[in-house]
Fold these 2 entries.
Entry 1:
Amino acid sequence: MRAVLITHNESSTGVRNPLKELCEIIKTHSDALILVDAVSSAAGSIISTDAWGIDVVATASQKSWIAPPGIAMVSFSDKAWKAYDKSKCPKYYYDMDQYREYLKIGQPPFTPSLTTMYTLHESLKNMVNEGIESVFERHSKIAQFTRDLAKNIGLDILPEENYASDTVTAIKLPKNVDGKMIVNQVEKNYNIILGGGQQKLAGKIIRVGHMGWINQEDIEKAILALKETLDTL
Amino acid sequence: MRAVLITHNESSTGVRNPLKELCEIIKTHSDALILVDAVSSAAGSIISTDAWGIDVVATASQKSWIAPPGIAMVSFSDKAWKAYDKSKCPKYYYDMDQYREYLKIGQPPFTPSLTTMYTLHESLKNMVNEGIESVFERHSKIAQFTRDLAKNIGLDILPEENYASDTVTAIKLPKNVDGKMIVNQVEKNYNIILGGGQQKLAGKIIRVGHMGWINQEDIEKAILALKETLDTL
């Protein structure tokens, strides 16, 4: 086993995998590289890259970072760089070594998505001002608030609560309720965009995103809109 | 010979390669795929993809398209798709077939740089309104205007004029003039950003960009700033 790929936060199901525990198990039983898709968790949930022994973490500007899409962010451990050195995959645009070289002069090797970069820079400054621990706590609180409100209106959370995401909550709909119709009605009548389910979960769940710039009032409005729409059925 | 890669417009030297003629020669002597880097020429210079028998053309939003960086645009001929089918390169994010599949539902397979996409959409509408022939003519005229002004102040154009770019003009500086200093002085005293030379041409040329939103007045100001700065030496 050369590498384990883990999705930290699965936004289609609202599940946050127990990354720290998974890393411990992997490291106890193997020397595999640990590669983490943290697209929708980074900046919303704690990821102690070095302490947990993670080799590669990848995330993207449009999620909890509160910036438009256009920039991916990746971290590499020393072990990941050693694997890079052995890699025979053809590479050019995504040649990490080019990025490492250009990092020395503070530039990317190719023109980046500048509008995203400027926005992301502002966002990072805001995070530094707020304090990263506070950013995580804020996400954790709003997630708990969302789950509590959903339960208050009589709905169940899709994942076991221990594994519920801090950035998106997946709520089970009552049987025989058409989730796609609910999403459409809520958008039409309340101008609130809820997420629907994907693939096997299509029509069966509602997803409420709470990454970044979301406050309790936003969540209250969304859950109330959901309740009122269900009540009309 | 399986493929020929051509850079249509070389922005570091202000050279536009004679793409049509090169394609004719390639097609006369081989069955090679013709892959064109049109990053800084597309939307500024004519590229008759099908008529000239070009298989792949790649360009980028931040050049003559008048949008921020963040989106690459690529065209594929049937022959290029056949080569794609045989290709054994590992691919995922740049798997063109995924883009082709998603094109059927009018979406990209991955979240695109949306801010760039909206800007690009506006820009494309403007181009359609202006008419693409007029867009090319405008670039051709402003390029000629730039070269004429440069010659009027006693400077030479770097490439032979038959091969001079429609989107960027490279101007030779008099011997013993430090081009980097000129670029710095012009920016400091006139708030105009000229391009310098790269690598072997560093310090020896000045580059004036005239892609997209540039008019004769802008060019006059830039060349006057260059002249006045040279006159102080």
Entry 2:
Amino acid sequence: MKKFTSVDDIQDLDELISLATSIKAAPFADSEKGKNKTLGLLFFNPSLRTRLSTQKAALNLGMNAIVMNLNTEGWSLEFEDGAVMDGSSAEHVKEAAQVVSQYCDIIAIRSFPTLTDKEKDEEEYVINAFLKYANVPVISLEGSTEHPLQAVADALTVQEYKTIARPKVVLTWAPHPKALPHAVPNSFVKVMKKADVDFVITHPEGYNLNPEFTKGVTITHNQDEAFANADFIYAKNWSSYDDYGQILSKDPSWTVTPEKMTLTNNAKFMHCLPVRRNMIVSDAVLDSDASIVIPQANNRTYAAQAILTKILENEK
Amino acid sequence: MKKFTSVDDIQDLDELISLATSIKAAPFADSEKGKNKTLGLLFFNPSLRTRLSTQKAALNLGMNAIVMNLNTEGWSLEFEDGAVMDGSSAEHVKEAAQVVSQYCDIIAIRSFPTLTDKEKDEEEYVINAFLKYANVPVISLEGSTEHPLQAVADALTVQEYKTIARPKVVLTWAPHPKALPHAVPNSFVKVMKKADVDFVITHPEGYNLNPEFTKGVTITHNQDEAFANADFIYAKNWSSYDDYGQILSKDPSWTVTPEKMTLTNNAKFMHCLPVRRNMIVSDAVLDSDASIVIPQANNRTYAAQAILTKILENEK
Amino acid sequence: MKKFTSVDDIQDLDELISLATSIKAAPFADSEKGKNKTLGLLFFNPSLRTRLSTQKAALNLGMNAIVMNLNTEGWSLEFEDGAVMDGSSAEHVKEAAQVVSQYCDIIAIRSFPTLTDKEKDEEEYVINAFLKYANVPVISLEGSTEHPLQAVADALTVQEYKTIARPKVVLTWAPHPKALPHAVPNSFVKVMKKADVDFVITHPEGYNLNPEFTKGVTITHNQDEAFANADFIYAKNWSSYDDYGQILSKDPSWTVTPEKMTLTNNAKFMHCLPVRRNMIVSDAVLDSDASIVIPQANNRTYAAQAILTKILENEK
């Protein structure tokens, strides 16, 4: 693997999940693989799980992990080609990406979308600028349109908890007080299309995800119908894609409640976290045995370690 | 040891100090004990000594140390049970504590008091929420009411510098421009009650510490009287406990000066640092041979390393 | 080597460059030299290259690297002797420097100048306070008046890319929207005076550097004349030294363009980065084969590793 910025970079999902599973069984088995290699983790935005689990994954492989908060610890970056840099940006991404490549063997970067400039967000201009100018492999720690490390952890979690060969997996929109990105649902849609599951998306009208990604997936605006016989409920809020970045609804009837869960086939409840309690999901669901959000978060380490392993192996 | 959030968690102070002493003599002797273990250090507040010495202690034991500033690098946390999370808090401590437990083998956390809400502070709601929800041992890096790692370093320092079997140790209040927490004096009181010392507290009227903690300790409002024949002077400011969080006095006559020190038995001067020069203590004392604040700070490493050792040993 | 806060601390430049060259050829050859040693990196200001390359250098030597942003993560420091600390500064540098010396075997520190108080800046009051009070070797990560690690990387780069025994090296001022420090040009001047080069400085009138440093160096206000037959063009902006910290000119005719480069002897283009594109230098130069700014940045690791090596060796 030469880069990992999209679920599209996964060539064989089954093999990747199988690798993550064996890493989870023996996380320190390859603790020499990353010797004398450095992972640079660059953050433009807050992070808890991604920050800790990706560092942990690197350390498990014997890599060094250097974390940097680009906004507060470094120089403000310019992304425009040909810019006359007489403003507030002190450094062009052309130099920054090449320079970090001198010190780090793999660059991992988080950059959230603007949610106001759809075109810019869809260009993934930050991640793609690093991909373009860096001389080493680049990993997305969540970009504008995808969160692929989360998707690998999600697929691993479904694999671990499924009780039938082809489970029904439902991605449901749920209400949230703030406008949220599409990266997590986009990557979840992409990875579920690669998995052997019966996949359904449910959301209120006006909340279509990018149709390019959801093509071929069953979509319903009837949440109850979607929940019927489901084995996994994956809840997530996102802002409108068509009316870009807008909040069209905070309808509490979309909150995942114990009543809703009774419509399912004893479904497991999933969420990428952080989760707004009693907005996205009621306490009674999140605190029940049906919830697997904590083991799902735990799988972030093994997902990241599997990706780092594949990138390190490619280098040799 | 399963947790360390209070001096009350010390079962045998002599044995702990003895462990710290032997660690200090050979700090790298157990550099395999923490192999493949990760300490997560979570900070809600500034820190110099605690941040560096606890990392150093972990590294000496071969552990990985991952530091995170929760306010700026992570998500703002909700602590209320049953909250409808439609405000600014993005993640409930229930999830945060469980999630960090997936990546870290020990969680260490710093959270200062509000000094406005006495009830909330006394509940130690941050530290206790982590204790309640984390699945791994929790260490306090200073909470609302205690700073137990400091207390271990303090006890070790007294042990090292005492010249008689049962020295007289005086905790004296001293003036400061800002309202300060009670955590350091509380923990010092608790640890001195466990030590074989003649312990006296002196402070102006209105500056009683929590009487639950000071029960049985000699308290005087006459600083000179307290200093008489003292072997150790431990200076510290705290805000009023009764008139919670208020500054009742900045009386410069309580500053520790060379004149005051002449009342003692060539006492050593101690302070947890950071210290306000010429408020808490005059330059002439702090820069004299009587001051042992630097070796006291150095002992923070060995105190932390002793606690980490005991927690790691318990796990096995 | 007992400290490294100025180019003046280099006793034998050739030997240092030779050491850096051999380290670059085998960066992990001495990975036990720093075992159980800790480098503390203290930042008062933003940093990308210095932050990453110095950490990398320490890790290559088997050292632990602990990074701390003093402004946001620690206590605000007092530097005045005898201060009555009743203001916003919580800790005196006397304690801070001694305390960090308890936890770290080498202290590295970055502190930019005020550019308003010339006297204070020239005293290097931050770096020098750490030098005075620390009990371990101190390295400058860029102070008010020097950036010596950059200078070592610069000298190494000139050594690597020169095609004749005694190349002509030109330091040219170039325009910039903000007032910048003199540390980089000062250290570059100092190191070039130690190197076997034909060294010329060119800048507009009013932009003299500290004459103490430039004594004996050819200085011209005619940039074209300076560029004639040059082998290296080192561009850098600085604010006025005489009219301290002021911007006297943003004259775009001083920008390094392809036309200007044709005056040279196929010169290599150097800059310490971050660089303002199309202010300091036009895209066409920076994106050409003449530009060696990325390998120059890469050399920061080996420069730092050479300095750390010399300091570690001195300790034994």
